[in-house]
Design goal:
heterodimer, A: 314 residues, 12 helices, 76% helix, B: 391 residues, 1% strand
Chain lengths: 314, 391
């Protein structure tokens, strides 16, 4: 029985009004067909390509173009973007505020990225922050947080969180090459800070819908940091206990809040950590593959029990 | 022939639509509660995260079991091939068992077992065949993947079949041009077959699956024809600069250039006519790729401002379409609207904005870390608002 037949039945049973039936039958047939997602993706790709070209052009031709022209153009773009956003933004609310238009979020995003390009150019040409580049990152993170909360924009929130990560000394591209303990400690402090900040803002109902972004970033950074400690042979057992504690917390949170990404984090990160300790000194192929068969089956059974308990909830 | 009954899959589709409409406020919670029980079915599903993890651990078990067997028995190459074929049969039987006995549907477990059966089949055939018959390996991969796609409805199995197709012509001819033509011809035949079959399922649950498959085939044809994306030698140009000679005859090369301009509008028209989200997306992607690869095709020099022009074009197109649609009665023109009609769109946007927002911008925005006398952007690194890049 197709959805159209079902809708007809529900209309006949009086569950759906004729107007609802017309609307839902139309939607089932793709009438009207929404291009909302496609237009958003086109705008996002356009902004990224534009800023990439802008940064590339400024970097390559800045000497020929001259500082005045470069700064004038970048400042004009920045001012135009922020003027647009501040002049068209709805009144601030601590709850989720829908974007006033399709382009609004992307204008703000463009302004934020142009800010990064301009500040980087100024620093390169005039060395305003010489030796204190961290201040730039912190100030930029602060600005992005302000913009994200003022205009309710997740794109800019993600920029803010990654700028803050930069201030803590973390960069995604350098992750695998950094094994020094201080780097790991910064990562843990960052994740705890971000997690706590997310929890506090959520508790105070300050854009509570941002909480998921905070928590997912904090969890992943924390798990990577703890895993890198487990892989390091010094104090690896201590790191393992910390990892298991984090996994238990993630599992409990995921199950209690029906947020199954945290169940997945606990399963995967925990399994990698425990396995790396247990098979570290094994050289026998039989033992290693037996380990994976047995423990994999145990994990599978546990996950099936969880999946059966919660069904298709997401 | 399909592992699941049409009524069960249709019920699942209805269930998903009801949830979406309830989330969007098109129906009330009370209406949802009354209608939902009528979409009950026996299929057992799970959410995407558990599905991924179940897939991963099933894969670990199956691969580790095969390796354990080979370590314990230490078979010769031929015997190992036979064992792998047996493992392929066992994996497939286990996938069928999981579906028939436990009614798993997109559950991760049956998917991983089905995938393993294809991998083991191809791995097992390789040592058993002489070099002249090696083309049977990708051929078997194609057939097995197509069967898995048809039986379990997994779109990525169809993608696997398309990837296997790439290896077939290499066994028949050494001409690179001929290889591209053969692969494109395979995809074109598949596309015609899908288009014919699909026309009978315009309004049922199968249309969604066929939509993905058609989009994949269009993308496959485009990528095969666009030599600057599908030829290893020409791909090297992006890093080492223009080549003086290519492996392709001149006529063939310029024919493909004409085709990469003809295909995107054709795909877009097809997608818009059918109101097919995936085909429209592939048409747009193909169009962007044509713009990006046009200069390398013509041997023209790329400029630093090219991405800016592309970006401005994309933004302009999006704004024009939006304004044009919004100006129609009720924000609708020719059955299209720029308004959001599904909660899934918002979920995708929220998840994508956080993930892409973290990773992508810092690859494109430059930022200094070290003080250096020369003024040169060196591209950004991920994280820290590009703070680790050099000018």
């Amino acid at each position: 029985m197709t959805i159209l037949t079902r809708l007809e039945q529900w209309k006949g049973q009086g569950i759906l009004s004729p107007e609802q039936h017309t609307l839902l039958a139309g939607l089932s047939r793709g009438e009207p067909f929404s291009l909302f997602l496609e237009l958003n993706l086109l705008l996002y790709a356009g902004i990224l390509a534009f800023v990439a070209g802008l940064g590339w052009t400024v970097g390559t031709w800045s000497q020929q173009l001259g500082e005045v022209l470069v700064l004038t153009v970048l400042s004009a773009m920045l001012a135009a973007c922020f003027w647009y956003c501040f002049s068209r933004a709805p009144a601030w609310s601590s709850a989720e505020v829908p974007s006033p238009s399709l382009v609004f979020d992307y204008v703000l995003y463009l302004g934020s990225l142009v800010w990064s390009v301009e500040l980087a150019y100024i620093e390169k040409r005039f060395h305003l922050f010489s030796g204190q580049w961290d201040l730039y990152l912190l100030a930029t993170a602060g600005l992005y947080f302000f913009l994200a909360y003022r205009f309710d924009n997740r794109f800019v929130l993600a920029l803010a969180l990654s700028s803050l990560a930069g201030w803590f000394g973390l960069t995604i591209s350098h992750w695998p090459s950094h094994q020094d303990p201080s780097y790991r400690q910064y990562a843990i402090v960052y994740s705890l800070f971000v997690g706590a900040a997310g929890a506090i803002t959520h508790r105070r109902a300050l854009k509570p819908h941002f909480f998921g972004t905070y928590l997912n970033i904090a969890a992943n950074v924390l798990f990577w940091a703890l895993l890198s400690g487990v892989f390091n042979r010094q104090n690896s057992v201590l790191w393992l206990f910390a990892l298991l504690a984090a996994c238990a917390a993630s599992l409990a949170w995921g199950l209690s809040r029906r947020q199954f990404s945290f169940v997945a984090y606990a399963a995967v990160y925990g399994y990698i950590g425990v396995s790396s300790i247990l098979i570290r000194d094994l050289n026998d192929g039989t033992a290693i593959f037996s380990y994976f068969v047995v423990t994999g089956a145990a994990m599978l059974v546990m996950l099936i029990l969880i999946a059966r308990r919660f069904g298709k909830e997401a | 022939m399909r592992a699941y009954s049409a009524s069960a899959e249709e019920a699942l589709r209805a269930r998903n639509l009801l949830k979406d409409w309830a989330d969007e406020g098109f129906i009330t919670a009370a209406q949802h509660h009354r209608m939902e029980p009528e979409t009950d079915c026996e299929l057992r599903r799970t959410n995407i995260f558990l599905r991924l993890v179940l897939f991963l651990f099933t894969l670990i078990i199956a691969v580790a079991a095969a390796l354990l067997f080979s370590v314990v028995t230490r078979p010769s190459q031929q015997t190992a091939g036979v064992f792998l074929l047996i493992f392929a049969a066992l994996s497939y039987a286990a996938a069928e068992f999981a579906v028939t006995q436990f009614r798993f549907y997109r559950y991760g477990i049956e998917e991983a077992l089905a995938v393993c059966s294809v991998v083991f089949l191809c791995g097992g055939m390789l040592p058993l065949l002489s070099s002249s018959a090696e083309f049977l390996v990708p051929a078997a991969g194609i057939l097995a993947s197509l069967w898995i796609w048809h039986r379990f409805g997994l779109p990525y199995a169809f993608l696997a079949a398309m990837i296997f197709v790439i290896w077939v012509p290499g066994h028949w001819t050494s001409s690179h041009s001929a290889q591209h033509v053969i692969v494109a011809a395979f995809y074109a035949v598949g596309l015609i077959a899908v288009a014919v079959v699909r026309s009978r399922h315009r309004l049922d649950f199968l249309d969604d699956g066929y939509s993905i498959v058609e989009a994949l085939l269009w993308l496959g044809i485009y990528l095969t024809i666009n030599l600057h994306l599908s030829s290893v030698d020409l791909l090297r140009q992006w890093w080492v600069g223009p080549l003086t000679t290519t492996e392709f005859p001149r006529t063939f090369y310029w024919t493909t250039w004409v085709l990469i301009w003809c295909l995107p509008p054709a795909i877009l028209v097809r997608g818009v006519r059918r109101k097919d989200r995936f085909v429209i997306a592939v048409g747009a992607i193909a169009g962007i790729l044509t713009l990006v690869t046009n200069k390398p095709y013509l041997g023209w020099q790329r400029h630093t401002w090219d991405p800016m022009l592309l970006g401005a074009l994309l933004i302009g197109v999006a704004l024009i379409i939006r304004r044009w649609l919004a100006a129609g009665p009720g924000g609708i023109r020719h059955g299209f609207t720029a308004q959001r009609l599904s909660g899934k769109d918002k979920q995708w946007m929220d998840a994508g904005s956080a993930a892409l927002g973290l990773a992508v911008p810092h690859a494109i925005t430059p930022g200094p870390q070290t003080v250096s006398p020369d003024v040169r952007f060196g591209g950004g690194d991920s994280g820290g608002a590009g703070a680790t890049s050099d000018f």
